[in-house]
Amino acid sequence: MKGLMLKDLYILRKKGMLLLAVLAVYGVLSLTMGEASMVSFLSVMMAITLPMTSIAYDERGHFDTYACALPVSRTAIVGARYLMSLLFALGGFAFSLLAGLGISLLRDNSSPLEVVLLTAAASLLVGLFYLSLLLPLLIWLGSEKARIAMIAVFVLPLGLLLLLTNGSSGLVDLVRQEPVQQALLLTVPTVVALLYPLSFLLSLRIYRKKEF
Fold first, then answer.
1. How many CB atoms lie within 10 A of CB 57?
2. Which candidate, 28, 59, 36, places its Cα nearest to that of 142?
3. Rounded Cα–Cα distance for residues 124 and 46 (Å)
4. Cβ atoms of residues 91 and 201 within 8 Å
5. Residue 206 pLDDT > 90
């Protein structure tokens, strides 16, 4: 599994440097505006695109056909992808946390530490949620066929959230209540923590049935 993960790191070196440059630009913009939420969210979301890009490269190079001919189990192949995705998401979280703390220290009117931590943690949960949905689609359909489904996965939850948070729904007022916030702080991380391993089991089931 270590070799599989190193392979992804070698493939993604140049793209990773490009993403760091983009995040540096957004970091400067966030510092200028005194708002760390933008770079916090983008750090995680850009980080989770890296393992998905690696899967697309593997598909183009027919790596799965080669890997399945090696003394490597399919569990290890899928597990390496999920572990690498988790590490990239945590790396994005660490970057967003450092960026938020840096902006908080450099700007007098910036967000307090609690807000920085909550923003970074929320970004991590969103990233893991999307990974849990997208990785099985990529393994099942492939990078080319999964494009429309991936767009739907991104757009539909966002559209539903915008619909529920309009003035007439009353969801915003409900979420602002302290008991509801406390319940969300407990249930949302728990759901995401359960969803990610369930997503791995689903992807493994799909991958074991595929023929290369």
1. 15
2. 59
3. 11
4. no
5. yes
Amino acid sitting at position 156: L
Q: What is the pLDDT of residues 132-168, one digit of tens each?
A: 989 998 999 888 777 777 777 777 766 666 665 555 5
Could you tell me the pLDDT band of residue 177, with boundaries at 50, 70 and 90? low
Token reading at 82:
């999920």
How far are the Cα atoms of 49, 89, 90, 183, 190 from residue 194, in angstroms, in the given order? 21, 16, 17, 17, 6
Average pLDDT score over the chain: 79
* Cβ-based neighbours of 19, under 8 Å, separated by 6 or more: 46, 47, 49, 50
Closest CA to 81 of 94, 97, 63: 63
Report helix, strand or coil for 176. Answer: coil
The span from the CA of 127 to the CA of 122, in Å, is 9
Please give the single-letter amino acid code of residue 203. S
CA distance 103 to 41: 14
Q: How far apart are CA 16 and CA 8, in angstroms?
A: 11
